[in-house]
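User: For my dataset I need records formatted as: sequence, then structure tokens, nothing else. Please produce one.
Assistant:
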Amino acid sequence: MEREYILKAGETPAYAFVPGHWPHPERSPDGHSYGKMPLAICADRPESWLKRKEWWLAVALFDAGYYWEAHEVWEAFWVASPRGEDHRSLLGGLIQVAAAAVKARQTHEEQGSRLLLRALSKWDTISTSAVLGWEIAKLRSYCDRARDEILEGTFDPKSRVQRVYSGLLARCLTDEASSSSDT
């Protein structure tokens, strides 16, 4: 059973940000996150991140089609990660997968496809089969399918929200990750 986080009222942004088509969420006064404090993550113990609501919120945002927004949450965790650690490579890849979907929404499918290849190369450096609840083999499979979906899809940057990938990223989580959160 995969970990499921249900987006609550107020957690779903008014739109999924697509550069050039929607107000920048943080910089524009019309942005959906304008004036909100950025997420700060402590680097103390990455395993403790699995108990944080934001960790699961990023997965739920991603699976709902809010790719830029998920990217921003994962980036806060990535910034807190020491260089050379497997969890930093994991997050770097997740950020690339989210960025690929944003590029697809911009109708830059080739750029999106290249970003997915970058995600795969980041995960090549991971020395274990699972990191922080993510099964690396499942993530790699997800990326392979996602490349086809990006190259064959039709995307509308003006749509309030649009899912780029048909599969749920949450299905790449281990059972252990599913039971480690109390959110």
